[in-house]
Amino acid sequence: MAEEIVNRIASSKLITFNLEDYYSPGQRVLFDVKDWLLEGFVLREGDFRMQAKNHDWSQYQDKYIALTCSTDAIIPAWAFMLLATYLQPYAKKVINGDLETLETVLYTEVLQKMDISNFKDKPVIIKGCSNKPVPKNAYLLLIEKLQPVVKSLMYGEACSSVPLYKKPKK
Hints:
The protein has helices at residues 45-54, 77-87, 99-113, 136-146, and strands spanning 15-17, 28-32, 64-68, 93-96, 123-127, 152-157, 160-166. The strands form two sheets. The protein has a four-stranded mixed sheet, covered by helices on one side. It folds into two domains: 15-24 and 103-166, no CATH class; 28-91, no CATH class. It is built from four helices and seven strands; from the N terminus they run ββαβαβαβαββ.
């Protein structure tokens, strides 16, 4: 008689944590101020303010905005702050940086609010592959959040994981 095949992974107490499940839905927009600069490098305050005043900010309704400058221009802090004042009534979130920085900020907010009590003294595997953009910093933030409470941390898939941390025995 054939021996019954038992899926030990399915019956284990291992918790799979998928950061992709915590992705903040919504459109991301990279707003590059270089187009508002003289020759892409010089910020002329009067022209910049006029561009900001005449721009259709309503197009950013409920979007996540990353303000950046893709040239080597030196942009004063007030310029990004001015744009943020125009975006504030429309955008879900405005940051200064690239899209990866935006994702890091969004994941930071979600992870800071997360209740981790159900992970106490449990083995946790952090899923590695995702279809949504998960920045590397999000994984580090997750480790910072989970390590003090979990029994162990692994990375990858249950069938082929990399051990990261095991709580010392007392």
